[in-house]
């Protein structure tokens, strides 16, 4: 493939990145709040009024909005911040190294969503549809 063909597809691939990352993010919220997919053996669900409960709510609502591509920039910015806080509060105290502290996914989510906050939702989104009207 030549560079022009790749550049022509870049906005669509941005939409695909947004959707795939948001579906995975949404799944984390479902697991936190509803135990689906099942949590690891013995892992309790969070209290809804706790940092973990608030994270689950943000992951379900934010993930859902990002799947649809609705209010993408502000939502992506907020959940990027959630992932940064989550990393420093839950993972970094365990170890300096993300591969050891289990925080590598939080870092990736943080920077993917930060990129989407700046790049926008891509053409396959409700935001793009709303701006075309």
How is this structure best described in words?
The chain has 133 residues and is mainly alpha-helical. It has one domain. It contains 6 helices and no strands. It has helices at 3-34, 51-68, 72-91, 98-101, 104-119, 126-132. The longest helix is centred in the first third of the chain and has 32 residues, at 3-34. The termini are far apart. The mean pLDDT is 94. It comes from Hyphomicrobium denitrificans 1NES1. Keywords: Cell membrane, Membrane, Transmembrane, Transmembrane helix. This is DoxX family protein. It is a multi-pass membrane protein. Belongs to the DoxX family.
Supply the key terms.
mainly alpha; globular
What is the rounded distance between the termini?
A: 34 Å
Give the overall silhouette.
Answer: globular
Portion of residues in beta strands equals under 5%
What composes the largest sheet?
none
Question: Kindly state the mean pLDDT as a whole number?
Answer: 94
Order of helix and strand elements from N to C terminus:
HHHHHH
Please give the count of helices.
Answer: 6
Q: What is the strand tally?
A: 0
Instruction: Outline the low-pLDDT stretches.
Output: none
| Radius of gyration using CA atoms only | 16 Å
**Residue share in helix:** over 70%
